[in-house]
Amino acid sequence: MQPNSFSMKNPTRYLLPAALCLAAMLALPVHATAEGPADAKGPVILPTEVLALPVEQAILTAPPHVPPAIKRTYSARVVVNLEVREVVAKLADGVEYTFWTYGGQVPGSFIRIREGDIVEFHLNNHPSSKLPHNIDLHAVTGPGGGAASTFTAPGHSSQFTFQALNPGLYVYHCATAPVPMHIGNGMYGLILVEPKGGLPPVDKEYYVMQGEFYTSGRYGEEGLQSFDMGKAIDERPPYVVFNGAVGSLVGDKAITANVGEHVRIYFGVGGPNLTSSFHIIGEIFDKVYPEAGLSLPNANVQTTLVPSGGAAVVEFKVDVPGTFILVDHSLTRAFNKGALGMLKVSGPENRVIYSGKEIDAVYLGAQAEEGSDSAKREAELKAKILAEIRSNPAITSLTKEMQVEKGKQVYMGLCFACHQPDGKGLPGAFPPLAGSDYLLADRERAIRTVLKGQTGPITVNGVIINSAMPPQEAVLTDQQIADVLTYVYNSWGNKGDAFTRDDVKSIRNQNH
Ligand SMILES: [Cu+2]
I need a surface site. Which of 15, 48, 169, 213 has the fewest CB within 10 A? Predict the structure, then answer.
């Protein structure tokens, strides 16, 4: 159906197809569509005690902010005006996206009401929108959570009324077909229904929501991206982000607090598909209301699981200054797809709680770092050789280069401990291999030294050394010895041909 067929100018033409189409959009049988735009029931007749309640306009806020805590101790009639807008905005550096929003940003405006309130809800779809939208608030008790009652064409406004029966933090989202696409374009937000007794006061409150974006391009691919339904069905989003964009809570957009303050985060997941393992690096949640039911808090939680279309409320006191990183602890989402935010805490240090780095000492572990760099380089060279073989038979020099890299890994895992990473050895203990006349004078002897070890006095560059080199024949393969000697013979200024596995084999088999 074309959006313009929702014109209100000719209601009779519009009535039947719209009812059928709405049923189709919600994938419901026709008889289940109790109401639609065509069969608006007219304003509800409220009982006098409800009419007597004070009326107030809800304050709506954009993330990461939340409206002020509710002070009143009685129910009210709260009027909510939420506007749907389709806007082009930044998803990441150089990457734009057409977001469908509640209030102009992702996630949608935060709504805050009190348990027992009567809410008069207006959904206004901006005339510039291309599509009809609606809203399903998980805080609503009633069919579709308000979806059928709020199905609204561009340039139209829908109204319905509900009573907030259950306290809690609830997700709202668009439920117009295809629903995953509307949510996937950013149509979700949170509504907080404060319990009658209120929530304990805290110093800072923030609003964070996670959602994923299924862009046609890969992560970081520049330009205006479109929604890819295939990736959505496969649940392979290039982006998983907090508050609608990569970097929305980073740098000068980070949320903040001061040492000693109590922080509360209203955290929700719009999805449309992924569950979040919400975690703050370097903090422990003193209190979590799991699944955002506000009655039974859990204490001392590291990571809380928040389902798609669900929420959690986390609270913690910040004890020390620094930058604390908000992540989905499914970590490639944080480090490769954008689900990373920052909480910057300022104030005095407390070195008893957290000392900061006390000592920095060298620790090489089993393998010097150069060894693993070398492994990377080896992989690159392997790929290069394959490409070279296809186009050019002159591959011998590349083979040697690769042997050097492989040999470097052996060296950096074994020989470096004595002969040192720079091959210069240690005076009086280990002879140098860099520029060693002893080494370079006799290739067979070099192989024998590594295979069988070496004891007794030898003269290297005019210096007598009388120590012991452990045999490697049980440790290294012929190929590894050929590689490490090729490396030694082609490093630190040394020059020589490659060693082959057969060179080593023939010496290994001697003297047996
Ligand atoms: Cu929508």
Answer: 48
